[in-house]
Amino acid sequence: MRARTLLATAVMMAAFGALARQPVDTGHGGAVATISHHASLAAMEILNAGGNAIDAAVAAAATLGVTDPFSCGIGGGGFMLIYSAKDRRVIAVDHREVAPASFHPGVFLNADGSAMDWKAAVPNGLSVGVPGTVRGWHEALTRYGTMGFEQVLAPAIRVAEEGFEVGPNFHRINTANEAKFARFSTASALYLQDSKALPVGSLHRNPELAQTYRDIARGGVKAFYEGPIAASMVAAVNHPPANPGVEVIPGSLTMADLKDYEARLRQPVRSSYRGYEILGMPTPSSGGIAIAQALNIMESFDLSGKSRAEIEHLYLEASRLAFADRNAYVADEAFTDVPFEGLLSKDYARERARLISATAAPGKVEQGDPYAFQNDLSVPLRPTPRPLAQESMHTTHLAVSDREGNIVAYTFTIEDWGGSGIVVPGRGFLLNNELTDFDFSAPHPNVPEAFKRPRSSMSPTIVLKDGAPAFTIGSPGGSTIITTALQTIVNHIDLGMSLADALAAPRMSQRNGDTTLVETLLPFPGSEQARALEAMGHQWRETEQIGAANGIRFNADGTVTAVSEPLRHGGGSAIVQKH
Ligand code: GLU
Predict the structure, then answer these.
(1) What are the pocket residues of ligand 1 if the criterion is a CB atom closer than 6 Å to any ligand atom?
(2) What is the pLDDT confidence band of residue 2, given thresholds at 50, 70 and 90?
(3) Which of 55, 183, 422, 477: disulfide with 431, CB 3.0–4.6 Å?
């Protein structure tokens, strides 16, 4: 049996022989870019079978749930932006996790009223939000797709069943999670060998996840949100499968929380930038608003004659200002009055831009007053300034387009690497810790509340020019998601780099901090580029890598170029149908 399935894989790989893993590919027809070659192949298989971009995106996402289980999966949630070629419209499918009915502003407070330590809050039932992914896939497929779960989950089921080789990147993240997985019997069994991460080169199979996908393929969305799978999630959250001697804080999730979960179809955030139309993710993500606001601030400068360093300085400072507002004002719009009109106003951006000088701001800046640009009688909320809350840098993003011109930009996550660390017994998937994306203490628009969606940074973005798709971009990376998407847009539009170069360039992330986060993976520190910015007062804090972006460029000659990471996250996979 085993030999037969391995042979089937070999035959399939030979059939895709021309589709070697590479981070850039150009051609005609559908295109896909993901961080996992298995996932890109899954999308291609569906496109070649006549599926559209939505079908292929779900196929890729389900496969990423197998090959990148620490970043994403059916135990989490996400945001899918869809460009429907027929309607010439963009729609956002919000399937962010939601807080259960039992939630309240005090859940992440210690007995003395202080906020819990963020890291300590993560690996518990308490941090698990109602997963939205399966409902999101269902909404996307039934409204915009052409295939059902049975077809689109088939490639992922095959990979989960037959297994895949553990690579260095999987191993790296697995190693970082050893302590978290050691807390839970189910995670230890699936992801540890003798208390250590699975070794590089070993074959990793997940038959329980294959079976869960089969149950969803057969029973549809209800199979996940009602019945035995739902019951096992409720049990895992309320009575976590802790190893002996480990103390885990349970959550309080009910079957009704799961049954009542809804994905929301939302209008995207729409803005313009130097003749391009930028479509981004609305709340509960802060991504679309922050990117639009930062670009509006950038747009108030004439860039002609400016050097690369001067343009990058503006990018960093515009991002700093946008983050000050994002941290103060943006949360789930069902629970808080987000001053959209002011935040997105070009006049407000011009006012904010006046705060930018020729040198870096000496540290944090304060939020502005977008209410003054609301064109109504809104009363300013006068928020208390907040530093950037703790967020992880994980998640995954994928991009797919098809021959008809439909596009999917899709970011989805289980929050921290390995989420809560709780693998649902018998089901083979990790539950998220998305509820730690709330600000732990009130007053704040993003305070924990029942039925609320925690604020996100996920930023799937689709860019149009003259009404037609120009490119799409998105990335993982917690709050650096916003700066990665923003910097790639600036690199491409303002610095004239190809989308591939724009994505591969060293990343800098300024999120209203005293220092700017930069990568050590690429030759940035000590470079000429770094020195030019240091001369303007910028200071760096190093991290290994920022984001793992994927995108597609729609070229003027009718071809498309799929673009993924050459190095970050072990390198991605971009494939275009050639015919
Ligand atoms: N929870 C984060 C968000 O929604 C994503 C997690 C990450 O990228 O690390 O923005």
Answers:
(1) 391-395, 413, 415, 434, 437, 456-458, 476-478, 481
(2) very low
(3) 422
What whole-number distance in Å separates Cα of residue 483 and Cα of residue 289? 12
Query: Is-catalytic flag, 359?
Result: no
Question: What does the pLDDT read at residue 14?
Answer: 36
421 - beta bridge partners? none
3-class SS letters over 431-471 = CCCHHHHCCCCCCCCCCCCCCCCCCECCCCEEEEECCEEEE
Best probe residue, ligand 1, of 35, 457, 483 (max atoms within 8 Å of C-beta):
457
Question: What does the DSSP assignment read for 33-73?
Answer: EES-HHHHHHHHHHHHTT--HHHHHHHHHHHHHHHSTTT--
pLDDT tens-digit map of 376-428? 776 666 666 666 666 667 899 999 999 999 999 999 999 999 999 999 999 99
Gap between the Cα atoms of 64 and 67, Å rounded: 5
Look up residue 360 and give its amino acid: A
Nearest residue (CA) to ligand 1, atom 4 = 456
- Cα dist from 378 to 337, 341, 342, 354, whole Å: 10, 11, 10, 24
Which residues are CB-neighbours of 496 under 8 A, at least 6 positions away? none
Q: Which of 34, 63, 395, 483 is catalytic?
A: 395
Q: Parse the chain into domains and list their residue ranges.
A: 1-374+382-579
pLDDT in tens, 141-154: 999 999 999 999 99
